[in-house]
Amino acid sequence: MIESVLRVRLPCSWVTQITGKFGATVTLVEQKPLGDGLLQSLVEIDPGTSDPNAIVEDLRGNPYIADVEAIVPPKGKTLANLKVRECNACKTLAESECFLTEATATEDGGLEWRILAPKRTTIEALVKDLRGRGLEIEVAALKPVKPGGVLTDRQEQVLSIAYKLGFFEFPKKVSLTGLAKKLGVSKSTLSEILRAGEAKVLHAYFHGLMGRPR
């Protein structure tokens, strides 16, 4: 099992648009496919010193965004639900044998993908395909994932609840935010527990799969 961190710059990225133009900070809370070539993205936008309403209007004018619903408080972060036209990078990732476990926006307007794959060559094939589509890809980290033994009681509890509530379904029946509230933990803590638990489960799965006769 291999874990990799890929930094991606997408020509169609609305993230690049608002971070570069407004100096805003973006956190991708949740993403899921909607069909008809659309991807739903739930995001938190910290406008910094910029006008949050101007940021929302700029997103509405982005040709790669089909629809924008936003809650803009007098102060603090904007919560926005975007319907984004799927890009080649997302399609390539979905068609690969890699598992996207986390996606975050970087300060320079790109995206950072944390990925799990059964072997190194799977990551290399994904990177090659993405670069073949003319995309800028940087491999920031690439390392084997240690099995780490069996799941801890906490990891097993969290994964079990997440599974029962439909967190791993497409589309998700509960978001990361909703699951965190249900468990009484922060999103960052929950994300770390899920990532560690998923790594162990996938490692055990692929270890057993690759050990079977073909």
Keywords for this structure?
31% strand; 8 strands; globular; alpha+beta; 39% helix; 7 helices; four-stranded antiparallel sheet; 3 domains; single chain
Condensed summary:
It is built from seven helices and eight strands.
Which helices and strands appear, and what pairs or packs with what?
Elements: E1 2-9, H1 14-22, E2 25-35, E3 38-46, H2 52-60, E4 65-71, E5 78-85, H3 88-95, E6 99-105, E7 111-117, H4 120-132, E8 136-144, H5 153-164, H6 176-183, H7 187-210
Antiparallel strand pairs: 1-7, 1-8, 2-3, 3-5, 4-5, 6-7
Helix pairs in contact: 5-7
Description of the structure:
39% of the residues lie in helices and 31% in strands. It is an alpha+beta fold and 214 residues long. The chain has 3 domains: 53 residues, no CATH class; 72 residues, Gyrase A, domain 2; 58 residues. The strands form 2 sheets. It has a 4-stranded antiparallel sheet, with helices on both faces. It has a 4-stranded antiparallel sheet with strand order 2-3-5-4, covered by helices on one side. α5 crosses α7.
Kindly give the count of domains.
3
How far is the N terminus from the C terminus?
A: 19 Å
Strand fraction band?
25-35%
Uncertain segments: 209-214
CATH class of the largest domain: Alpha Beta
Portion of residues within helices: 25-40%
Structural class: alpha+beta
Q: Spell the H/E element sequence.
A: EHEEHEEHEEHEHHH
Given the C-alpha coordinates, what overall shape results? globular
Mean pLDDT: 81
- The third-level CATH topology of the largest domain is Gyrase A, domain 2
**Strand line-up across the major sheet:** 6-7-1-8
- Sheet of most strands: 4 strands, antiparallel
CATH architecture of the largest domain: 2-Layer Sandwich
Number of strands: 8
What is Rg?
18 Å
